[in-house]
């Protein structure tokens, strides 16, 4: 992957997860209405404080990607958040799947960009 394209994708993903991670702490973006099973699931994440762990991962990943320090590690850790966001929207709230798919696609592109850093752990 071209280094300039990778840098742009890395910065965009870093900003995306940093903003949404900080929003979970500071609530500066309007919260979408969720009801039914999606509301119950999201309510359980909030009441169990699991959403704060997700927010912490997003903030740390965003900072790592923006500062280009430990980005390869945080991209792997962020992949769990990306997959869970897509699965949540695919099964419970399909109207908001666009940003979740964007997150997953950017995360996969970042993993591809860092592929040289994973060679040792992926060797059979």
Structure description:
This protein has 124 residues and is mostly helical. The chain has one domain. Helices cover 77% and strands 0% of the residues. The protein is built from 6 helices and no strands. It has helices at 3-26, 36-47, 50-67, 71-91, 97-113, 119-122. The longest helix has 24 residues, at 3-26.
Keywords, please?
124 residues; mainly alpha
Quick one: biggest sheet? Answer: none
Q: Helix and strand succession?
A: HHHHHH
Described by the principal axes of the CA atoms, the overall outline is globular
Tally of helical segments = 6
Q: How far do the termini sit from each other?
A: 24 Å
Q: How many β strands by DSSP?
A: 0
Radius of gyration, in Å, reads 15 Å
Mean of the pLDDT scores? Answer: 94
As for the number of domains, it is 1
Q: Estimate percent helicity.
A: over 70%
What structural category characterises the helix and strand content? Answer: mainly alpha
Show unreliable segments: none
**How much of the polypeptide forms β-strand, as a percent range?**
under 5%
Give me the oligomer status.
single chain
Q: What's the structural blueprint in terms of helices and strands?
A:
Blueprint: H1 3-26, H2 36-47, H3 50-67, H4 71-91, H5 97-113, H6 119-122
Helix pairs in contact: 1-3, 1-5, 3-4, 4-5
